[in-house]
Design brief:
There is one protein chain. By secondary structure, the chain is mainly beta. The chain has two domains: 223 residues, Jelly Rolls, CATH 2.60.120; 84 residues, Acetamidase/Formamidase-like domains (Endonuclease I-creI, Roll), CATH 3.10.28. 12% of the residues lie in helices and 38% in strands. The strands form four sheets. Strands 1-5-17-7-15-18-19-21-20 form a nine-stranded mixed beta sheet. Strands 2, 4, 6, 12, 14 and 16 form a six-stranded mixed beta sheet that branches. Strand 18 and strand 19 form a beta hairpin. It starts with a strand and ends in a 15-residue tail after the last strand. The relative contact order is 0.18.
């Protein structure tokens, strides 16, 4: 199976841009591995823990205004604007022995409270599958990619990597874990998929602007879909349907994400609006995905088990 390594040539650092040239190409439906790195900070870390590609990336990679090292873009043959890219997250592996969390003045939910730079290096206990984040308090490791994106439209220009958009990016959605199928709307030829911003653990919302930041390897399958039409990212797990939206206002993000779930039920399960609206009020869960990176994010989760009795079942879930 082919593998894309993170190097100064194969990453874009801190931005998304629909005019980027692809660094890797796959057939629709092909599986491949992609390597991502995260290495800020490198002080107070044993030298042999730091990914070997980091010095070259920091010296030679083209830099934008954001902090994320993104591997890609990966072109998918025959993907065209108006298509949907199906992203199967087949496997996620930690590739560093540590992560880090940074509290920065003027950033995050409480950036003005006790403002000082505070960086914590967090070694992983791989045997226990946990990380100690405070004295006597360990959390389970639950890795996921904070950044999953197709390229934005070229006319949007070069975007800072921090605010998520309708084409993905810095979603920071911890429910997009191994085994999840994500769908993103394609805006440019080839779709131009990129990923990075590995997290070993995070709560919903990432309130201080960092999770346990680390490097991850992912096994993906990218498939072009022409039987779907979406405006915002949607996803499915083995147990749930998921709709997502972002907006500068959290209330508007909630309305967009929930309306997307109702529309999904109307379109793909042939449900009446009021029945879908009622079901979402009774059984759907809204989570704050993103709070501190410019755009606020909401994702809605609805159990697939509730829908198994309906005659109409969408084919994009299998």
């Amino acid at each position: 199976m082919r593998r894309l390594e993170a190097t100064a040539r194969t990453v874009h650092f801190g931005f998304h841009d629909g005019s980027l040239a692809p660094v890797f190409e796959v057939d629709s439906g092909e599986e491949f591995w992609i390597n991502t790195v995260s290495a800020d900070p490198t002080h107070d870390v044993p030298r042999d823990w730091i990914p070997k590609a980091i010095p070259e990336i920091f010296a030679d990679a083209v830099r934008g205004t954001g902090p994320h090292i993104l591997t890609g873009p990966v072109s998918v043959k025959d993907a065209r604007p108006g298509d949907v890219l199906q992203i199967d997250i087949l496997e996620i592996k930690l590739n560093q022995r540590y992560g880090y969390n940074i509290v920065s003045p003027m950033k995050g939910m409480f950036g003005n409270e006790q403002p000082r730079q505070a960086t914590k290096i967090i070694p992983f206990d791989l045997k226990a599958n946990s990380a100690e984040v405070a004295a006597g308090i360990s959390v389970p490791l639950a890795p996921f990619f904070g950044q999953l994106a197709v390229a934005p439209p070229r006319e949007w220009g070069r975007l800072d990597s921090r605010p998520p958009t309708r084409h993905g990016g810095n979603l920071d959605n911890k429910d997009l874990r191994q085994g999840t199928r994500l769908f993103l709307p394609v805006a440019v030829d080839g779709a131009l998929f990129s990923t990075g911003d590995g997290h070993a653990a995070q709560g919903h919302g990432e309130i201080n602007q960092t999770a346990i930041e680390t490097g991850l390897d992912g096994r993906f399958r990218l498939t072009v879909r022409r039987d779907l039409s979406i405006t915002w990212p949607i996803a499915c797990t083995s147990t749930h349907l998921m709709t997502m939206a972002v907006h500068e206002d959290l209330d508007d993000a909630a309305r967009l994400a929930m309306r997307a779930m109702i529309a999904l039920l109307e379109t793909h399960y042939a449900m009446d609006f009021h029945d879908a609206y009622r079901l979402c009020s009774v059984a759907a869960d809204m989570h704050v995905t993103q709070f501190v990176n410019g755009n606020r994010g909401i994702h809605v989760m609805l159990s697939r088990a509730l829908l198994t009795g309906l005659k109409t079942q969408p084919n994009f879930l299998s």
